[in-house]
Design a protein that fits this description.
Length: 183
């Protein structure tokens, strides 16, 4: 597996991984990520990708992708919460992660978090995320990387007529202390 920064040419495979979520939902699988009622069009997806890629090129956001046998199988983004000059949210990153359904549970998500969080140190002071309370696998994964629950949002998501609770999680990226010397 190779984990690297996103490239412009990754769009078709990333779009496919995202579209598969709508198939999973329609087949009745519980999807731990917020979706739209209808799958966004290709035009909407192009806009979304171009917008995200632009922020990466500008050095504002981070976007890691995992590749297996030359194919993209997952991605992790850390988007800057405050973008304007001098924003008081400019130090906060918001994390999102998604792995192709056929590649889950094999360490791809962990490798993506390793890559993205290493890159985030020195660029963000903290990383936040929201996770469905029922998504216990993902919560355990985040806890393994040091995220702690900072809040509970009852009915944070409404999917059709069903409400789902969310947990807010946070990881403080304190600077790594310099090693002690005897000098
Ligand atoms: C959550 C997700 C990104 C984790 O990636 P992954 O590649 O499956 O994670 P890894 O293989 O590195 O780690 C597996 C850990 O995650 C857990 N996990 C979470 N969702 C899982 C799934 N669908 N299948 C298998 N393991 C899953 C496992 O229990 C395991 O925990 P453990 O090490 O304590 O046993 C991925 O399962 C996914 O894309 N899920 C659908 C979208 C989603 O829920 N995104 C998170 C939104 S907050």
């Amino acid at each position: 597996m190779l984990v690297r920064n996103v490239a412009w040419s990754d769009f078709p495979e990333l779009r496919e991984i995202y579209y598969l979520l709508y198939e999973e939902r329609d087949q009745g699988f519980p999807i731990g990520i917020t979706l739209f009622a209808d799958r966004p069009s290709l035009v909407d997806e192009i806009d979304w990708f171009a917008g995200g890629y632009r922020h990466v090129l500008a050095g504002e956001d981070l976007w890691s992708v995992a590749e297996i046998d030359g194919h993209v199988v997952g991605a992790c983004t850390i988007q800057r919460l405050g973008r304007g000059p001098g924003s008081e949210h400019g130090h906060v990153g918001v994390l999102g992660i998604l792995v192709h359904r056929e590649h889950r549970g094999k360490g791809v998500g962990s490798a993506l978090l390793d890559h993205a969080l290493a890159a985030a140190r020195g660029r963000f002071d903290l990383v936040r995320l929201s996770v469905f309370s029922v998504n216990t696998g993902a919560r355990r994964l985040y806890e393994r990387f040091g995220f702690v629950v900072s809040g509970h949002v009852p009915r944070g998501v409404k999917r059709g007529s069903e409400y789902l609770d969310e947990e807010e999680m946070v990881l403080l990226l304190d600077p790594v202390p310099a090693p002690l010397t005897n000098a």
